[in-house]
Specification:
- It is a single chain.
- The chain has 145 residues and is of the alpha/beta class.
- Helix content is 51%, strand content 10%.
- The protein contains 7 helices and 5 strands; from the N terminus they run βααβααβαααββ.
- Strands 3-2-1-4-5 form a 5-stranded parallel β-sheet.
- Its cofactor is Mg(2+).
- Toxic component of a toxin-antitoxin (TA) system. An RNase.
């Protein structure tokens, strides 16, 4: 694995909660050195939202996901969670008013995550590369060979 630094999209993290995660994604994550992968606080928010949304309907699954987040994700990436800070806010203002973003407006959370990657000069690792085409950021899909 190169010395490239990555911002892991929420779908990368979520993949690791599956009973049988995609082997390509597992290999990608295992190939990263400590400090080479970062997580947006917005992805943590999306995971929290998902857990809380499941509570009324599937409390057991919500508990499993809570345990996964607390025991597997936060111990590994907790020190590498990036806030949506001033630099990301300025990047978001710039990126979302670009011609490409105006032609095909991205989802709000995607645009905030893209701005975080842009502000910190990170490659965004995601399955949904098409969602980030409007942004001048490098993207990488670990599901592809």
């Amino acid at each position: 694995m190169s010395a490239e630094h990555f911002l892991l999209d929420t779908n990368i993290l979520s993949e690791t909660s599956r009973a049988t995660p995609d082997p390509q994604v597992v290999a990608f994550l295992q190939g990263l050195r400590e400090g080479q992968a970062f997580v947006s606080s917005l992805s943590v928010a999306e995971l929290e939202r998902g857990i809380h949304a499941l509570l009324p309907r599937q409390p057991h699954r919500a508990g499993e996901l809570r345990a996964w987040l607390e025991r597997q994700i936060l111990p590994v990436y907790g020190a590498y969670v990036l806030p949506f800070d001033l630099e990301a806010a300025r990047a978001w203002g710039q990126l979302t008013t670009s011609e490409a973003a105006r032609k095909q407006p991205p989802a709000r959370m995607d645009s905030l995550i893209a701005a975080t990657a842009y502000a910190h000069r990170l490659t965004l690792a995601t399955r949904n590369t098409a969602d980030f085409l409007a942004f001048p950021i490098a993207v990488f899909n670990p599901w592809l060979p």
